[in-house]
Amino acid sequence: xxxxxxxxxxxxxxxxxxxxxxxxxxxxxxxxxxxxxxxxxxxxxxxxxxxxxxxxxxxxxxxxxxxxxxxxxxxxxxxxxxxxxxxxxxxxxxxxxxxxxxxxxxxxxxxxxxxxxxxxxxxxxxxxxxxxxxxxxxxxxxxxxxxxxxxxxxxxxxxxxxxxxxxxxxxxxxxxx
Length: 177
Known about the structure:
Strand content: 5-15%
Largest sheet: 6 strands, parallel
Helix content: 25-40%
Radius of gyration: 15 Å
Order of helices and strands: HEEEHEHEHEHEHEHH
Shape: globular
Number of strands: 8
Strand order of the largest sheet: 5-4-1-6-7-8
């Protein structure tokens, strides 16, 4: 971890995630009835809960629309959910305006080429370990974990560590950080 990444992470006031390939491993499970299923990693969810408790809100910008994403984000108390966004940049700007933030105060995590336009705007652009090479090339930082397998938790803990809130969040569970 470089000091530059920690400095960028210390300035983050909003964390925005893509869904497929970031919060999930990118697999799409479809039932015979057309019902869509996704697998979310529980530890990523805990990281999101802790980051929000540390005062950093979370947003989701996804090109796809899925009721299961709505359900999962509600269960994690994620307020800012933008689905069906073929133009992720517009949703990113809308979030910045809504929260009165500058793009450099926002981190964005993606995995594929359609995430790159937002990554170019964000103050901290992150790619998952198994991201498409173009997304990885435009990231300030790349996780060790793959999408849907702990990458989100890594980012949440990175931001909390940089902002000096990780130990407090761990202490909520009786763990001395």
